[in-house]
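Quick illustration, no need to memorize.
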Amino acid sequence: MKKIILWDWDGTLVNSLPYKYEEIWSHVFEGNEEAQNIVRDFIKTPEGKRCNRYGLIAYTLQKTGELSESVEPSEDPIVEKYAALYKEGAANAIPTFGLLPGAQEVLEKLSGEGHHMHLVSGGGSDEDLDQLLTNIGVRKFFNGVFGFGISKAVGTGFGKHDNFLRIAEIEGVSAPEQYVVIGDTPKDKEFAQKIGCDFIGVANQYNEWTPSKDPKVAANLLEVPGLLS
């Protein structure tokens, strides 16, 4: 049965996590080691992993005293200034990392088999991600590319489910059994559970998932097609 596949991006298809966990914050908070250390510690926590760039930046600025907790982060010009630096750093760096091993082959295989595929990520706006995929050369494999839209909400969970509703309308299919989410974080798994669809996890050094503990975990991307049911 053909599936509608909802792919995560960072850490699932592209090798961007080391940069986004560490190096990018030297660019965003250049010269401010306190802020760099705060955000690097926070991003590794369960709460931090649920935040997009706006949430991470807002949390950090609140801890350093640059931002009041009563301020709405999405409307604050200070947050927007640092978010622009994040966008600049990601746009320049991520295309140099390339796709994770097996990504190109798997996307070609699944696309050739007739599966509809969409990218659903909290790692950027729709437009930024669309351009990034075009630059890397994989945009052609996806029926749609969905980031956090025009919203600058602190969290990413609402955005992903909202994007699922957009995709269901585009596809004309709402039955959960037609969908599968492929990702590398507990948040991706929660996203699949919220939809009520299957989930395939991709193991990496940050999630420490193993196929021996979960048969729906792929040790690498080349194993993903064999886990589609």
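The chain has ten helices and six strands.
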